[in-house]
Design brief:
By secondary structure, the chain is an alpha/beta fold. The protein has twelve helices and twelve strands. The strands form two sheets. A ten-stranded mixed sheet has the order 1-2-3-4-7-8-9-10-11-12, covered by helices on one side. The radius of gyration is 21 Å and the shape is elongated. The two termini are 23 Å apart. The structure holds S-adenosyl-L-homocysteine (SAH) and iron/sulfur cluster (SF4).
């Protein structure tokens, strides 16, 4: 969306200061507005009662609102995963999922775009195509509205693994991370935000330069040939360029890059694939997250058996590779990895 944002949750304290000064108020009013929206989770301008009524009216009269999204639909899965459908002001639905962890805390899966242009063969979001990038306000709102709407679900970690490719929307994703990490707001630590990418090389470089967060890469195949078949984006950014960019990504001590690997039976899960994967990743500080394929209506792959997933994990572990299995949650409400698809308002 070009031009000035009208959604205040997408503005940093300095930008809100400028705005309130332009409206004839003192700069500290802008900082108050930031704290009310991000720290106190005010749901609307009416709810920001520390500000003078005249300022709130002035902001509304100029078309400003606290948020860019509204909650339109909530679905709860039998395993307590919650899928939120959130409407944009232009009538799209963005999905975000709250996933229970073993610790009792929640991880929130955040969307960065409405749809996705990259068309990976195994992903439902990819099958539906791309509509538009989300704004920083629409990204942070997913988290702010979840915290305000579900106070009993303490969200501790954010992962950009919902709809869209975050590194094809770097400006807004970087800004959203700055907003979420701001000490006057949520003050999230770098280790609590993970950006997952299908391998957009210039985006990886920019992310490393512009913010501090964790990086996950959807690898899904250990060779360029197979990867290009499954993920067309690999023709644009081949595996050797991707690995070179990852070797240059700033990694503080003890931090690792995560490689996601969706297991597709008979396609990428043989012992030879495991061997190639270990070889490919041998010079990089990383861990592998195996994701058993989640089928969706019309998908052409099968769900792998638990035994075959365990077998692949053991092949990696035998070579001292740090690897885990992501048993997906929420598949009964199409909330699991690769199953998000709400691109139009069906609320
Ligand atoms: N576009 C980014 C962010 C979305 S993350 C990216 O691709 O990294 C979505 C994750 O779910 C990716 O790791 C992808 O490989 C995985 N995924 C996609 N479709 C899936 C499916 N049907 N089953 C299991 N995992 C899937
Ligand atoms: Fe897009 Fe990621 Fe799905 Fe590929 S896996 S289509 S990049 S959302």
């Amino acid at each position: 969306m070009a031009g000035e944002t009208k959604h205040l949750s997408g503005l940093l304290p300095a930008e809100l200061e400028d705005l309130t000064v332009r409206l004839g108020e003192k700069p500290y009013r802008g900082r108050q507005l930031f704290e009310q929206i991000h720290a106190r989770l005010a749901t609307s301008l009416d709810d920001v009662s520390v500000l003078p009524a005249a300022l709130r009216q002035h902001l509304s009269a100029q078309g400003f609102s606290a948020h860019g999204l509204t909650i339109s639909k909530i679905q709860e899965s039998s395993d307590t995963t919650v899928k939120m459908g959130l409407s944009t002001s232009d009538g799209l639905v963005v999905e975000s999922v709250l996933i229970p962890m073993e610790t009792g805390a929640f991880t929130q899966c955040m969307s960065s775009q409405a749809g996705c242009a990259l068309g990976c063969a195994f992903c439902m979001t990819g099958m539906l195509g791309w509509t538009r990038n989300l704004t920083a306000a629409e990204i942070v709102d997913q988290h702010l509205l979840a915290l305000a709407g579900f106070p009993e679900r303490p969200v501790k970690n954010l992962v950009f693994m919902g709809m869209g490719e975050p590194l094809l929307n770097v400006d807004e994703v970087v800004k959203a991370i700055r907003l979420l990490q701001h000490e006057r707001g949520r003050n999230l630590s770098p280790r609590r935000i993970t950006v997952s990418t299908a391998g957009i090389v210039p985006g990886i470089r920019r992310l490393g330069q512009e913010v501090d967060c964790l990086l996950a890469v959807s690898l899904n195949a250990p060779t360029q040939e197979l990867r290009a078949e499954l993920m067309p984006v690999s023709r644009r950014y081949p595996l050797d360029e991707l690995m070179a960019a990852l070797k240059g990504f700033p990694l503080p001590p003890r931090r690792r890059i995560t490689f996601e690997y969706v297991l597709l039976p008979g396609v990428n899960d043989s012992p030879a694939h495991a061997r190639d994967l270990v070889r490919l990743l041998s010079h990089i500080r990383c861990k592998v997250n195996l994701i058993p394929f989640n089928p969706f209506p019309g998908s052409r792959f099968a769900r792998p058996s638990d035994e075959s997933v365990d077998r692949f994990l053991e092949l990696l572990a035998a070579k001292q590779m740090v690897a885990t299995i992501r048993r997906s949650r929420g598949s009964d409400i199409l909330a699991a990895c690769g199953q998000l698809a709400g691109t139009k308002d069906d609320a």
